[in-house]
Amino acid sequence: MEKTAVITGAGSGVGAAVARALAQEGWRVALLGRRRELLEQVAATVPGSLVLPCDIGDAKAVETMGVQVLAQFGSVEVLVNAAGTNVPQRSLEVLSLTDYHDVMNVNLNGAYYCTQAFLPQMRARGSGTIVNIVSEAGKAASPKAGPSYVISKFGMAGLTQAINAEERPHGIRACSIFPGDIDTPILQKRPAPPDATARARMMQPEDIAACVLLAINLPQRAVIEDLLVRPL
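Above: the chain's sequence. Below: its structure in C-alpha cell form.
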C-alpha cells in the first residue's frame, strides 16, 4: 500500500489529529483547509507534509488541488474527509439560504468533490480507503445540530454507502465515522457554546483519529462501513 493520504479540514480539530497520527505511522500527508496559517502550524508537527489551502466547496479548486497532489505524491491511497462546519443561526426558523448552502458546500459537496478527485487513480490501482467523518447527526436529527448540518451528514453517510456499493469490486472501501460530541473549534459556532466543564466530558480529536487509523489499518480484505463512537 502506498502510504500517502489527503486530509480535508486539516487545520484544526479531527483533521489535524488525523494528520499527526498518520505521520507517526510513516504516512506522507497532504493537508487541506481554507486557512494557510492554520495548515502551516499543523505542518510544523507533520514531517514531509504538503500544505494546500483549498476551498473544497469549489469544484474547480478541488480539481486543481487533485492534480497538484497527484503530481507531488504520484498516487493517494487514503482520503479522509474531515472538513466540517455549522452556523449559529441553524434552526429551520432562522436558517438563511446562504448559511444553508455554505454548510452543504463544506460538509457534503466538498466531500463529494474530493472523492471524485482521487477515485480514478484508486480505481486504476485497485486499492484505496476513504474515511468520512460524519456525526451522530447523520444517524438522527436533533435541534442541537440544525437541519443544514443534519442533511449534509445524512448525505455523507449516503456517499460512503455509494462508494462501497459501486467501488468494492475495484478494491476501494469507505468508512463512515459517526462521532458524538468532540471538543473542537466548531463548538464555538453553537448558538450557546458549551463551557469548560461540558467540554471536559467530550471526546478529544485524538479519539476520532484512533478510529480513523482503525479503519485504514484494517486488512484490505475487510471494511468497517459504519462506526458510531460516543463519550462515556
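The chain has one domain: 4-229.
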